[in-house]
């Protein structure tokens, strides 16, 4: 079997400040860099053949740290904006709590967790899927189906369409589920067949559903 490993970036400066980030290119915090190092420690059983990351430094820096810690920094890594976080439009840079106080908690929750709801001037999760999934099928999965171990670092909302596809989730679950920072979501393949899923615990990072054991997925071609 070979692995497709998908990891959300470590804590960014605007995660720390509770701001809508979107395509704003903010760096990792010291905690985010440390978490990426910790993540690498639970991945030492996998030798990667290729990597894919977004054009946002919080994702690319997470990739760099993990690969350097593993001594695998020489693998080919493709950088593409198709894996960027959803664009939050007019909300980018705004504090989430202050935005909720201004527009109302219900409206902001719709913008954040409605699958097809766009924030002003921005993308919905459905819009994000329209660029993420073609890139997944056209560039990432061919490596996986060829038996390669692939690592992807991206953002929470650009990961959601991928997790939805593999886990066969409905739109509401996809929009509301937790996607943990620096948590490895691992999908094991045999050729084009998805066989099983694993979500690994990283010391110091708490993610709902993470464990060192495998969880079931519906087997099938993806």
Structure in words:
By secondary structure, the chain is an alpha/beta fold. Helix content is 39%, strand content 17%. It has eight helices and eight strands. The protein has helices at residues 13-16, 30-41, 57-70, 96-103, 105-113, 125-145, 156-167, 171-176, and strands at 2-8, 50-53, 77-79, 150-154, 184-190, 193-199, 214-215, 220-221. Strands 1, 2, 3, 4, 5, 6, 7 and 8 form an eight-stranded mixed sheet that branches. A hairpin with a 2-residue loop joins strand 5 and strand 6. The relative contact order is 0.20.
Question: What is this structure's SSE topology?
Answer:
Layout: E1 2-8, H1 13-16, H2 30-41, E2 50-53, H3 57-70, E3 77-79, H4 96-103, H5 105-113, H6 125-145, E4 150-154, H7 156-167, H8 171-176, E5 184-190, E6 193-199, E7 214-215, E8 220-221
Parallel strand pairs: 1-4, 2-3, 2-4
Antiparallel strand pairs: 1-5, 5-6, 6-7, 6-8
Biggest sheet character:
8 strands, mixed
The separation of the N and C termini measures 15 Å
Shape: globular
Q: How large, in whole angstroms, is the Cα Rg?
A: 17 Å
Taking pLDDT < 50 over at least 5 consecutive residues as the criterion, the unreliable ranges are none
Count of folded domains: 1
In the CATH hierarchy, the third-tier topology is known as Rossmann fold
User: What is the helical fraction, as a range of percent?
Assistant: 25-40%
Instruction: Tell me what portion of residues adopts beta-strand conformation.
Output: 15-25%
Q: Please, how many helices?
A: 8
Specify the CATH class. Answer: Alpha Beta
Instruction: Let me know the average pLDDT.
Output: 95
Identify the CATH homologous superfamily. Phosphoglycerate mutase-like
Q: What is the CATH architecture term?
A: 3-Layer(aba) Sandwich
Structural class: alpha/beta
Order of helices and strands: EHHEHEHHHEHHEEEE
Number of strands: 8
């Amino acid at each position: 079997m070979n692995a497709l490993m998908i990891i959300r970036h470590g804590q960014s400066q605007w995660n720390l400040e509770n701001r809508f980030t979107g395509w704003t290119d903010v760096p990792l915090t010291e905690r985010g860099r440390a978490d990426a190092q910790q993540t690498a420690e639970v991945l030492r059983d996998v030798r990667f053949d290729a990597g894919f990351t977004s054009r946002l430094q919080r994702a690319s820096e997470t990739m760099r740290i993990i690969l350097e810690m593993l001594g695998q920094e020489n693998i080919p890594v493709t950088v593409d904006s198709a894996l960027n976080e959803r664009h939050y439009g007019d909300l980018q840079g705004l504090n989430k709590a202050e935005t909720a106080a201004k527009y109302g908690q219900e409206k902001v929750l719709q913008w954040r967790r409605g699958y097809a709801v766009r924030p002003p001037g921005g993308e919905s999760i459905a819009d994000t899927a329209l660029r993420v999934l073609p890139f997944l099928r056209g560039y990432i999965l061919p490596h996986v189906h060829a038996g390669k171990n692939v690592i992807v670092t991206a953002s929470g909302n650009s990961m959601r369409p991928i997790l939805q596809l593999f886990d066969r989730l409905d739109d509401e679950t996809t929009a509301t589920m937790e996607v943990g920072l620096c948590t490895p979501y691992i999908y094991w393949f045999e050729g084009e067949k998805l066989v099983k899923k694993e979500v690994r615990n990283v010391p110091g990072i708490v993610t709902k559903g993470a464990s060192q054991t495998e969880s079931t997925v519906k087997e099938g071609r993806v």
